[in-house]
Write a structure and sequence with these properties.
By secondary structure, the protein is of the alpha/beta class. The protein is built from 22 helices and 13 strands. The longest helix has 25 residues.
């Protein structure tokens, strides 16, 4: 395959590829118009020339024109310029031309990926995408199953939905077919491995008792009269997990936060200790969630260590469902796969990434721990991944992939008017997923992206590598600066932590200030001058986002960052929250401009101007 050119994949920050984009857009619109005309060409036009001559017809078209012009004005004035390297905020950037065009084209056909008859093309594409994502994440595409969701939140819900139902199955089997489980205790039933439970279900099907088992599982009886176990998540979790516990009836009180270390990865020792304490109390563990790319710090949990701990406890008869929330960082696994989609060992990977110029010589990534985390992702029972983040695909496009497709039996439903169960059609997506009506356009957008860009270092690796290089340089720019002087006053700038991925958090404090509230107010004002709050976003030099790292969510870990600014521990204990700027450097274009007037070199100059406004 020819080498992929990243600059040819996007419309570009200054619409540099506008000629090609417009050419393909015109082709698609003409092709769609001809499709309508050619459907039974013998049919006479329904809208006649005399209709078009009517004044109300003309006025309706004029009203449509005015509405679209009005919308265009609103969008240009107030929309976030994701495409610009000046945007360093949320997990957004320029999206792929192929994905945008594929989305717009498919939108005209309006497929609904709920039932095959409503989306014969895009349903098949979705099944294909599930296999592609399975291979990317380390699963066997022949044994796994995946599909597109509206985002990572729904994907996380589905992961917990499956875990909840799976945990209750052994207890239901004991009631209906006790001979299958023998004389083991309820505690032992709550700790069977996922594979063992699914194997038992195969035996249940042979016995013809599958429906009886489902009726007595959490799917049939709910969880009000029983505790399905605890959900263990790192403090860096996405907020969707708390909502999921509520929505699925498990209860937020059954969620346990595992501490994070100074690098904001899950504290493996705290995870192990928590499991041991729950085991002593005979409280089952519903599931453990590892994060690959936390949304606030870009941290990648040590998945290999979580897998090791699960194996150790399984030797003691304790097991749990393992889900990985890789909504943000999942596509980065392409960085460790060679042109044949084979996983590269660490030494080969480091040399290859630089020889192939996927990352720059001055970039030290990934760390051995991150590499190992990617290696063991395929051990999880399910994984969330968002094409609308590092897949560079338009909203709303998330996905979930499950390691063993047999697990679908726990969540499948068949609506008589939509599905024909007798067909046994694996393309009946709507029967297996949480959503009902679902746009096929997002599927087409993702499929187009994957068609052009391999899911390995020759494809997505080249795009993501640019963002990682940019993030590392941005991090070093902040470290090197240390402080800036404004009107005789000195302001310190520090990054939160060395990023595992492409998220860089940082904060300012005036040297000598020991008041955490004053520090938070300074950073909040800087953010407001670098966001929509300061007026039309096109007037901003740089646009960033922000977050507050609180004691309630992160324990005392952020307090150590506060002390690095010379603020005493007592201030942290009093305020219990630190306000930081948050910059997700997904754009592949930030790294391209290293001129004296380039984006990276202008960043500190811009920050100096913002602080000058604040203190003057």
């Amino acid at each position: 395959m020819d080498k992929l050119n990243v600059n040819a994949l996007f419309l570009g920050p200054k619409s540099e590829n506008q000629d090609f984009f417009k050419e393909m857009l015109n082709f698609m619109m003409n092709d769609f118009i001809d499709w309508r005309k050619d459907f039974h060409p013998q049919d006479k036009p329904i809208i006649t020339d005399s209709d078009k001559d009517r004044e109300d017809y003309k006025s309706t078209l004029l009203k449509t024109r005015h509405t679209l012009v009005d919308l265009a004005g609103k969008l240009q004035t107030c929309s976030m310029p994701w495409f610009s390297p000046r945007y360093l905020g949320h997990m957004n950037t320029d999206t792929l031309m192929a994905a945008n065009l594929g989305y717009m084209l498919t939108l005209l056909y309006n497929p609904n990926n709920c039932a095959y008859e409503g989306s014969p093309v895009t349903t098949e594409l979705e099944i294909e995408l599930g296999k592609q994502l399975a291979g990317l994440l380390g699963y066997d595409p022949k044994r796994s199953w995946g599909h597109i969701t509206s985002g990572g939140t729904i994907a996380n819900y589905e992961g917990l939905w499956v875990a909840r139902n799976l945990k209750s199955i052994p207890h239901a089997i004991k009631k209906v077919l006790p001979e299958l489980v023998g004389e083991i205790s309820d505690w032992q039933l709550s700790n069977l491995t996922s594979v063992r439970v699914l194997d038992l279900l195969d035996e249940v099907k042979v016995a013809g008792k599958f429906e009886d088992i489902l009726r007595l599982s959490a799917r049939g009886t709910g969880v009000l009269d029983k505790n399905p176990g605890k959900l263990l998540v790192p403090q860096s979790k996405h907020y969707s997990w708390v909502k999921a516990m509520d929505i699925l009836g498990i209860g937020t009180e059954n969620l346990i936060n595992i501490k994070v270390k100074d690098n904001y990865r899950m504290d493996i020792e705290d995870l192990k200790n928590t499991i041991e304490k729950l085991t002593v109390q005979k409280i089952p563990i519903l599931a453990v969630v590892g994060v690959v790319g936390s949304t606030e710090e870009g941290a990648i949990d040590e998945i290999h260590e979580i897998v090791r701990i699960r194996r150790e406890f399984e030797e003691k008869g304790i097991s749990f469902y393992l889900h990985i929330d890789a909504a943000y960082g999942g596509y980065a696994r392409a960085m460790v796969l060679d042109e044949n989609n084979k996983f590269l060992e660490y030494d080969d990977l480091i040399s290859t990434l630089k020889e192939q110029r996927i990352i720059a010589e001055d970039t030290d990534w990934p760390s051995p721990e991150v590499h190992k985390a990617f290696k063991f992702m395929g051990e999880a029972d399910s994984i969330t991944i968002d094409p609308h983040k590092m897949g560079y695909v338009p909203y709303a496009t998330g996905a979930i992939v499950m390691k063993d497709k047999r697990i679908l039996d726990l969540i499948s439903y068949f609506a008589a008017y939509v599905f024909d169960k007798s067909e046994n059609n694996p393309l009946l997506l709507g029967s297996y997923i949480m959503e009902g009506s679902k746009a096929g356009a997002t599927v087409a957008a993702t499929w187009c992206a994957h068609k052009i860009i391999p899911l390995n270092f020759t494809g997505y690796g080249r795009i993501i590598g640019c963002g990682i290089t940019g993030a590392q340089r941005f991090y070093r720019t902040i470290l090197k600066a240390g402080s800036i002087i404004i009107a005789g006053r000195k302001f310190q700038i520090k990054p939160l932590t060395l990023p595992d991925f492409n998220m860089v958090d940082f904060a300012f404090n005036e040297i000598g200030n020991k008041d955490l509230t004053a520090m938070n107010e300074l950073n909040q004002k800087i953010y407001e001058l670098c966001s929509y709050k300061s007026g039309p976003v096109y007037l901003n030099d740089f646009i960033t986002s922000k977050t507050a790292l609180s004691e309630e969510e992160y324990g005392n870990t952020p307090g150590k960052f506060v002390m690095d600014f010379g603020i005493p521990w007592e201030e942290w204990e009093k305020v219990k929250s630190v306000y930081v700027m948050r910059s997700s450097i997904i754009t592949p274009f930030l790294v391209n401009d290293s001129s004296p007037d380039g984006f990276m070199n202008n960043f500190l100059k811009t920050m100096k101007e913002k602080i000058t406004k604040i203190i003057s």
